[in-house]
Design a protein that fits this description.
Length: 228
């Protein structure tokens, strides 16, 4: 395991965070609303309503919507309305196949490049996740679960696969809030403990296997909720 010694840990471009273009800021906020289920699948929202909710101008909202529609995270319903697509069982099967193909491989690559710092961040993310589960905090669960996974994938040094997986999460993420509403946070299994143990032991294949099982458990929950 590598020990990071680079003194500058500021993310690239962080010094320009205050200069983020309005359309990018709106895109990131709207994307988070979709990812964490603040916009319910199938519920139409108006462009005007989003400009009010986001306290943003019409132009940056339109640009954000254009990008999210292109990514498949939103669909245009006409009459200046958009909605989050309703996930079908068939789409869930496709997403499950793609996730089980890509996410274990990203984990395998990340495990080979694991650092002390990233492992520490992963451990903290999982601690925060477990706390959210204990408190029945649905928003916290969704946020920290996504944070845990993206921390791993960001360490894989595989930008094409990572970007693809992130778009997959946009497609099934909204349904996770539906699952939490039906089953509660205490009934959401994960393999994070096994995954962290494998990463600490530098056991690449065990880490990939734990991620595959974690993805499978999550998609089983999605399919179960959709079948009700």
């Amino acid at each position: 395991m590598t020990v990071e010694t680079t003194p500058n840990t500021t993310p690239a471009g962080a010094e320009d965070a205050g200069k983020t273009p309005a359309h990018q800021h709106v895109y990131e906020r709207l994307r988070a609303m979709i990812l964490f289920g603040d916009l319910a699948p199938g519920q139409p929202v108006t462009i005007q309503g989003l400009t009010t909710q986001l306290e943003a101008g019409m132009t940056p909202v339109r640009e954000a919507l254009r990008r999210l529609i292109a990514e498949g995270a939103l669909i245009h319903q006409g009459n200046r309305r958009v909605s989050v697509p309703i996930l079908t069982l068939e789409c869930a099967d496709e997403l499950g196949f793609m996730r089980k193909t890509l996410e274990p491989e990203l984990t395998r690559r990340a495990a080979r490049r694991m650092t002390v710092k990233r492992l520490r961040l992963l451990t903290q993310a999982d601690t925060d996740l477990n706390h959210a589960i204990d408190q029945g905090d649905v928003g916290g669960y969704l946020t920290h679960n996504y944070r845990f996974h993206t921390l791993i994938y960001a360490g894989a040094d595989a930008p094409i696969m990572t970007a693809t997986v992130d778009r997959l999460w946009l497609r099934f993420g909204p349904s996770l809030r539906v699952i939490c509403g039906r089953f509660g946070t205490s009934n959401l299994p994960d393999k994070h403990m096994e995954l962290l143990a494998a990463l600490r032991d530098a056991d690449v294949e065990a880490a990939a296997e734990a991620m595959a099982e974690d993805v499978e458990q999550g998609m089983v929950q999605v399919r179960t909720a959709l079948a009700i």
